[in-house]
Amino acid sequence: MSSVRAAGTPAASSTSFAKLFDPSIRAASALGPKVGTPVSYPELQGYVMYTEASMFFFGLALLFEAAMLWVIHSPRAKFKRLMIMLALLVAFTATALNLIVALMLLTTGILPLLPLLAVAFGGYIVMHEWRLLQDLNARESAAAHASTRA
Q1: Band of the pLDDT at 143, cuts 50, 70, 90?
Q2: What angle (nearest 5°) sits at the alpha carbon of residue 54, between those of residues 50 and 60?
Q3: Rounded distance between C-alpha atoms, residue 22 and residue 111, angstroms
Q4: Domain ranges across the chain
Q5: By C-alpha distance, which of 85, 68, 86 is closest to 77?
Q6: Angle of helix 80-107 relative to helix 113-149, nearest 10 degrees?
């Protein structure tokens, strides 16, 4: 009887994409000193509380972005500048928090995919909102200048 060998490369000699995540997998499965005992939420291994807080604030920044876009595109809306500044503050804070969490996780050998994506998208949102604020300032100053000439 002949043995049948599975097609593909043996797992031990593979140079797959999964090896990139190997330190992250080992860090997630490593047993800590408090195995089997109840721990508080901040004591969970892998900065779970910080990761979840950074994702919450990024979601909040997305909601503020949506509300700000609705306000500035409403023809009779007031407080456009205030709404842009508030959305900019929330987006900047969420992006900075995600950057800090990503750096914390990278130092422990964990690949922080979601915080890194939040930093990338948050950076774009901050730049977009900053540009909207500059455009609003330019339009208001041009309107004020035109009204003083007339």
Answers
A1: confident
A2: 145
A3: 10
A4: 45-149
A5: 68
A6: 160
**Percentage of residues of the chain with pLDDT beyond 70:** 78
Q: Residue 2 phi/psi, 5° resolution?
A: -100, 150
CA distance 76 to 53: 35
Q: Over the stretch 45-86, which tens digit does the pLDDT of each residue have?
A: 778 899 999 999 999 999 999 999 999 988 887 889 999 999
Q: How far apart are CA 38 and CA 61, in angstroms?
A: 33
d(CA 144, CA 138): 10
Whole-number Å distance between alpha carbons of 101 and 126:
18
**What span, in angstroms and rounded, lies between the C-alpha atoms of 61 and 129?**
11
- Does residue 117 surpass a pLDDT of 70? yes
Token couple for 99: 């950057």
Residue type, 83: M
- Measure the CA angle with vertex 18, ends 12 and 24; round to 5°: 110
- Distance in angstroms (rounded) separating the CA atoms of residues 145 and 134: 16
Residue that is written with structure tokens 């948050």 in the block: 122
